[in-house]
Amino acid sequence: MTSSTASRGRWLVSEERRPLVAAVRPGSGWPEDPATEATPVAVTAGQVRELAAAASSVGELAARESVCRACPRLVSWREEVAASKRRAFAGERYWGRPVPGWGDDKPRLLILGLAPAAHGGNRTGRVFTGDRSGDVLFASLWRCGLAAQPTSVTAGDGQRLFSARMTAAVRCAPPANKPTVAERDTCAPWLAAELALLRAELRVVVCLGHFAWQALWPQLAALGYAVPRPRPVFGHGAETVVAAAGGARPLTVIGCYHPSQQNTFTGRVTDAMLDAVFGRARALTGATAAEE
Predict the structure, then answer these.
(1) Measuring CA to CA, which residue among 53, 50, 20 is closest to residue 37?
(2) Which runs of E-coded beta strand occur in 163-238?
(3) Is the four-CA dihedral 88, 20, 103, 29 of positive or negative sign?
(4) How large a percentage of the chain has pLDDT more than 90?
């Protein structure tokens, strides 16, 4: 690695050079933690690009994502939340780190969201896990034959995805659930690298919400997919097939309203609506019971 590359094993708060106490230390035994003390840590946007591009496997990429410290505002927020905690979880240890992609390493379906929830993925260490949105999402995935269990409570709970993987456009929980444009762009190389590593088997991407929908198209264009111009309009059930360069397998992109608590409570998103999207996605992957 070059001199610009992030250090290995220096899991410190760079401003004060003191050990972290709010976030889980890599390699300390947290279930499903992909990183070790030797995992290189990105602390600048340039290092994110370098480390993401150099990851040779989905597992290595997840490890590097999970220790990233390139966005100071997000680092401060996720660790502040992990230290202060919500009253309902006062007795729990919070993950307090970026939440990497999770699921099948060779999926046919990728589920893309906005960012981890402050007291969901930021607490449990698994994307879409431990909050109301995740409860609704995993129940639908289970009904559609894409998940082993109807709930995802915490890392290490036995949950599995079948030929599916989930990830987020921004890997850290942002204040007010709103990352800045700069934070989105700094985090983008992690998503770009994940898509590049998955593309051989990938057939469908379901985007949960407008932010995820918008974040996906530039990455697909960079990988050589023929992204329509103007870009497709987001909507629940919106479906676009994009051709790949060199005769590679095309990709179907499906829009889905985000299963946020506000959307589910108001009826903007229902169980039937989610099941329709994920049932369609599963059918497009060609997965069979034998493959599960």
Answers:
(1) 20
(2) 164-168, 204-208
(3) negative
(4) 87
Which residues touch 72 (CB under 8 Å, ≥6 apart)? none
* List of E strands, the chain: 12-13, 18-19, 102-103, 109-113, 164-168, 204-208, 239-242, 251-256
**pLDDT at 145 (0 to 100):** 97
Element (H, E) at 59: helix 58-65
Asked whether 98 and 65 are in contact (CB, 8 A), the reply is yes
Other beta carbons within 10 angstroms of residue 222's beta carbon come to 13
Residues 6+ apart with CB under 8 A from 171: 65, 66, 68, 98, 99, 100, 115, 116, 187, 190
Reading the block at residue 176, the tokens are 């007010």
Three-class DSSP category at 191: helix
CA distance 219 to 203: 15
Strand pairing of 164-168 and 109-113? parallel
Distance CA 82, CA 20 (A): 11
What does the pLDDT look like over 181-235, one tens digit per residue? 999 999 999 999 999 999 999 999 999 999 999 999 999 999 999 999 999 999 9
CA distances from 51 to 38, 106, 165, 191, 193 (A): 13, 21, 21, 12, 10
Domain 12-285 has CATH 3.40.50.880: no
Number of H helices, E strands in the chain: 9, 8
Buried b (16+ CB within 10 A) or exposed e, 161-188: bbbbbbbbbbbbbbeeeebeeebbebbb
Domain boundaries, the chain: 12-285
In single-letter form, the type of residue at position 94 comes to: Y
